[in-house]
Specification:
Shape: globular
Largest sheet: none
Number of strands: 0
Number of helices: 9
Radius of gyration: 16 Å
Structural class: mainly alpha
Order of helices and strands: HHHHHHHHH
Helix content: 55-70%
Length: 168
């Protein structure tokens, strides 16, 4: 993190609202989150971007969280042609067919129970770690799981905002 304005933040601060909204949507699919982030421009540095993101995420309603989660593909099935989801799910790239099948089954059971995709900050996680997380988290109540998913979204948003701030 940097305490000075990066070229990526400078560029983001100067985008028109439509272009900035589109970039924010690539970070998080929640329109409420995007609106809060857009309203706080310009950002001085990465820390201010993170602080605004974390605060906006904390204020999301259940419906807003569902909208945010709907923007994420299931673990083990990154969106075709989407370098972001492919990069974030790199830990599944070398997974065995058996592990992929097990994760698909767990994802479906999770989705049936909670009504949304299993959300985890997959960056740096192995397929086995993600599978084990689903197995543990599927036992949660709706309320507990919603707050865990909110925390995972915070981590994902920070990774994606770092890329935005760095101008990637």
């Amino acid at each position: 993190m940097t305490s000075s304005t990066t070229p990526g933040i400078t560029r983001f601060n100067t985008l028109d609202d439509a272009a900035a909204t589109a970039e924010l949507h690539e970070v998080c699919a929640s329109s409420a989150w995007g609106g809060k982030m857009l309203a706080q421009r310009p950002y001085a540095n990465t820390e201010s971007l993170f602080a605004a993101s974390d605060a906006a995420m904390a204020e999301l309603t259940t419906a807003d969280l569902e909208e945010a989660m709907a923007g994420h593909p299931p673990i083990g099935r990154p969106k075709p042609g989407d370098p972001t989801s492919a990069r974030e799910q790199r830990g599944m790239a070398g997974a065995s067919e058996e592990l992929k099948a097990e994760l698909l089954e767990l994802n479906l059971a999770y989705q049936e129970k909670f009504g949304h995709v299993f959300l985890i900050c997959a960056t740096g996680a192995t397929g086995e770690q993600m599978r084990d997380a689903v197995k543990v988290r599927i036992e949660n109540t709706d309320e507990v799981e919603r707050e865990i998913a909110r925390g995972e979204l915070v981590k994902i948003n920070r990774i994606r905002l770092t890329r935005l701030a760095e101008g990637e």
